[in-house]
Amino acid sequence: MSMVEPLRVLWLAFPVMFAAGVHIIVIKRDCLSQLKRPLDGGRSWRGERIFGDNKTVRGALVMVTASGVGMGLQGVFRLRELEYFDYGQTNLVVAGMLLGFGFVLGELPNSFAKRRFGFSPGQHAGPLFAVLDQVDSIIGVLLVMHLIWVPALRVWIWALALGSGVHIAFNSVFVMVGLKRSVF
């Protein structure tokens, strides 16, 4: 296996990492506050919130839009040797938006499950949910990627390993700036 593979996976993930950085700034500065509404509209299912207050319209729109911008930037600053597919033959803004959508979509089942078990948004929910928190969005991104390109098994393995570490790093930033209570 080539040592370039981790770099290729990180290049593929760049739009979502870029969007996560933008999301941190948007939350910290309370930009777009009129969109800080729960995706579930405050609705409940069987007495518990569907997703909770932390999954917002603002977060979804920022992740989708900023991922599109991030991948658009990759089209300007191409690194062909790191591309899994030909970025020149792809509408990168749309592809990036799909990555962002996959990220958001991937987090929802875990949030739904945590509400069913009585955990409030942001609450540490034990080791199983800690692991799921690190990989859920990666799985969502890779599944949605199938609309553009089908990732090989090696890409899934590297993405889950590297993506978990990157996710923990971003969570650490969220903790440092006071947006989260715990890295896990």
Question: Which features would summarize this protein structure in a list?
Answer:
single chain, 184 residues, mainly alpha, two-stranded antiparallel ribbon, 5 helices, globular
Q: Sketch the topology as an H/E string, one letter per element.
A: HEEHHHH
Structural class: mainly alpha
Strand sequence of the main sheet, in spatial order? 1-2
Helical percent range? 55-70%
Task: Please indicate the percent range of residues in DSSP E strands (runs of 2 or more).
Answer: under 5%
The average pLDDT value, as a whole number, equals 91
Shape: globular
Alpha plus pi helix count: 5
Report the C-alpha radius of gyration, rounded. Answer: 16 Å
Measure the end-to-end span.
31 Å
Q: Tally of extended strands?
A: 2
Low-confidence stretches: none
Largest beta-sheet details = 2 strands, antiparallel
Number of domains: 1
Would you mind describing this structure in some detail?
With 184 residues, the chain is an all-alpha fold. It has one domain (5-176). Helix content is 61%, strand content 2%. The protein has helices spanning 5-28, 57-76, 92-116, 127-145, 153-176; strands spanning 44-45, 48-49. Helix 1 (5-28) crosses helix 3 and helix 2 (57-76) packs antiparallel against helix 3 (92-116). The protein is globular.
